[in-house]
Specification:
It contains twelve helices and no strands. It is mainly alpha-helical. Helix 2 crosses helix 5 and helix 5 runs antiparallel to helix 8.
Length: 388
């Protein structure tokens, strides 16, 4: 579980240091990112739940917005009702899960990590040790690849959670768990091979980071079906965008090609979760809305346990790879629109109240995004070029 943070003692801390701590507090406390005035959103189809960009992660907080103002939890389903509701939903949704699984298998493309790695550049480390002057990637690009890889390394923990969510189901649910895990496993393979063969990162530090990540794990309790589906839908899209933007920011055609490939996987995973939750909304609209709002208000990306994560995440945000505006514009709003959350009728009182809190939350995020943009004028981190 990501550690909680407390307000830092400000004596002797620069304004920049305070801001970095606020970025970290936002990530650890799971208050989400945002954007400015809503752009016209693309019609969401199989490949479109956001614009065509793609561990993870950053949501800086303005000095003027109190974190607790964004932390009002939605009314949860009574715990005693969750097991029965889960069993019923998994049973009723299994035909749709099977249909979505079949669709996934028809559109996904087989690929092999070794096809993306320039092995001709490889050299023996025992004869030619790694030195800091060797990487072509520098600065935030190097940091973003490190965060992305170490986040992907925690797949065993993610598998445990996904299996815990769907393991009570049958057939298509278990088939999806296996397929999803197998596809996700390629991501860490190709990222590590790229960084090691090209010497774009110290391989000793990478391995120590992997060992630390796996020993720490991603220590979260298994969520119920509705909360779990809401979280992974947002998380997969956030990961797609972060990976895609990392490739673009790298200014390396090899790295960019790898990230395009990984982002395509993440997009299809998002589509599965997004569409199965849309089917769940038709069955349990009020419970689904409460779960969606819960997950938005407490959202966090995996990876918070990575060494120096707070400062690295702040730099990733300042570079525009994944910041407040990206999170609200390209993750939250497109999926909420696809689900029709603000158009649903006949909700119970708790769901209506949760939806109102969501609207207020999105407005506050808009304010945060604008204030963050004002700070960028003082940042020395190069900003990612606009897509297209």
């Amino acid at each position: 579980m990501a550690p909680t943070t407390t307000t830092p003692h400000r004596t002797g801390i620069t304004r920049e240091g305070v801001w970095i701590r606020q970025v970290a507090a936002t990530l650890h406390r799971t208050v989400i990112g945002a954007r400015q005035e809503p752009r016209r959103l693309p019609e969401p189809g199989l490949w479109s739940a956001s614009s065509d960009h793609s561990p993870p992660l950053v949501i800086p907080m303005s000095d003027d917005v109190a974190p607790d103002a964004l932390q009002v939890p939605a009314d949860p389903i009574h715990p005693s009702d969750v097991p029965a509701l889960d069993r019923r939903l998994l049973a009723e949704l299994e035909p749709e899960a099977g249909r979505l699984m079949d669709r996934h298998l028809k559109v996904t493309q087989e690929w092999f990590p070794h096809d993306f790695i320039p092995y001709r550049l490889g050299r023996d480390f025992d004869k030619d040790p790694w030195t800091p002057d060797q990487p072509r990637l520098t600065g935030v690009a190097q940091t973003a690849f490190e965060i992305g890889l170490l986040t992907e390394d925690n797949l065993p923990s993610y598998h445990r959670l996904i299996h815990g969510m769907f393991g009570k189901g049958d057939g298509a649910w278990l088939n999806w768990v296996g397929r999803w895990t197998a596809e996700e496993g390629r991501h860490a393979i190709v990222l590590r091979d790229y960084l090691v063969v090209t010497r774009n990162f110290d391989p000793t530090l990478l391995e120590r980071g992997r060992m630390a990540q796996l020993q720490q794990g991603y220590d979260h309790e298994t969520p119920d079906t509705l909360h779990g589906l809401a979280y992974v839908a947002f998380q997969e899209l956030a990961t797609r965008i972060s990976h895609r933007n990392t490739g673009r920011y790298s200014d390396d055609p090899v790295a960019d090609r790898i990230m395009v490939r990984i982002a395509a996987d993440e997009n299809l995973h998002m589509v599965f979760y997004r569409d199965i939750l849309k089917a769940a909304i038709a069955i349990e609209p009020s419970a689904a809305v409460r779960a969606i709002v819960d997950e938005i208000l407490k959202f966090e990306m995996p990876g918070a346990g990575i060494q120096n994560f707070m400062r690295k995440a702040a730099d990733i945000a300042k570079a525009g790879i994944y910041d407040i505006r990206v999170h609200r514009d390209e993750v939250l709003l497109p999926i909420l629109k696809y689900w029709g959350v603000f158009e649903l009728s006949g909700l119970d009182g708790a769901a209506e109240e949760a939806r109102q809190r969501l609207a207020e939350h999105l407005d506050k995020l808009d304010v945060m995004a604008k204030r963050f943009e004002e700070r960028l004028a003082r940042s020395t981190v190069p900003r990612i070029a606009p897509a297209g």
